[in-house]
Amino acid sequence: MTPRPVSMMKSDCKSLAEELLASYTTSDETSFAYVSARDRWPVILTGAIDDIHRAISTCKDEEKVADGKTIVEGLTKLKYELQHNRSLTPLVDDGRSDVADYNRELAALHSPTWFNVPWLYAECYLYRRMSTFFALSTHWRSYDVFARQKLSTFISSRPAVLELAAKYKMLITQLQNDTPTTQTPEEIEDAEKLLFTEMCEICLWGNATDLSLLTALTYDDIQKLQGADARKSQEKNILVNHLPDAYRTLKAAQTANPKGERRLDIVLDNAGFELFVDLILAGYLLEAGLATQIILHPKSIPWFVSDVLPADFASLLNALADPRALYSTPSDSQSGTDRAPAPISDQEVAELSFVFNHWSTLHQEGQLTVRPNLFWTSGGSYWRLPLSAPALYEDLKGSVLVIFKGDLNYRKLTGDAMWPTTVPFSTAIGSMGPGSGIRTLALRTCKADTVVGLTKGEDERLKGMEGGGGDTGARKWAWSGKWAVVQYCDGKA
After folding, report:
1. Which of 25, 100, 177, 384 is the most exposed place for a label (fewest CB within 10 A)?
2. DSSP E strands: which ranges in 406-483?
3. Is the pTM of this model over 0.85?
4. Is 170 helix (H, G, I), strand (E, B) or coil?
């Protein structure tokens, strides 16, 4: 039976829509939830434990070492509970206001075990519980256990970073110089549409580098996910593409209010290379006049391994401020070998320095701002936004367009529900849809089961392809990041 659209909200931690719709659980052997709980999450916890051990090994402060060992004990206990299918336990109060919501929802689930729990809640709970170990420490409160991986992967993205930096410098210089043209207005409009599409698709495929999924990829594999040739070959893999709607929205706002403020928001996903391409898009939109201010929404705590924290924005700018130092640092795979990174050229340094100066100026002038909110690390869907975070909800209404990046944001927009794939995106996003006052654009490469807005028969066609799931009942084609959707809903209409 097709789930009926429900926008009514309850006053407790779950929306009524969430209670009426079935969601993916870690007990479903045909879903990626099953694989995640048993295979991915233990690997992620092991990596976090190893990172703390590595940090402790170079620490001379005995109190900090002892503090770190306590964190390792907590992470090890959590890993044991996960692998032995124990019950999820209430979060310890670490001073953050979201603890009560997490624990209230856990109680409503009646003490579920790790291998039989709603996937979205369990995965959010996993990272939220990890954060309590650090928040309750004395010396490690601001430590990002995933920072080392984020930096390593960004360094491994060097070819794509250099390619895009060169293209960005050329593009921004052209926009700033306002070079005269013999093109007709129609030709200029077509060129602007094409450029907007290209920049958004760069941003879309940028989240192919997702550290919570890349547990076995090599340096060469990461490079293959990025670069112009890869993007061209991936265009045919965008199953739904509403970029023309998004462009019309921004262009209409520009025409109606050419000298006034026109804000665009980006709810971020991954740090490293993906944040780099998010800022490529942001800088372009501001320089092209399609927005006058862009607000970036990062997470407040280390989240899903690679998600952006406010510190990641500063770290990226600091890295670009000294690109030679960045790219003279051996990657993890090069450390301990006689392989040294090839030096970057003077031209590449100049291009990266241009990127740094442009973004720094935009940030200093208030056109590019970072605004975290605890709501983005809550344990449920974005259907809860109007009641759970009313101030944020009202604030987002002031944006011309809100772009949601990546797979987790898509899962939260759609409630991670078991929708038929033909259900419209505008229906699946519930209280964020029509009448919400928020225009939504989701840029998502598919890495989980929930997919909506497809044409009839498309899911069956993709399942029938090699590795697509076939007759197993699993939607395996939607797990790999090979396919994407770009979906738009005008909540102001």
Report:
1. 177
2. 439-445
3. yes
4. helix
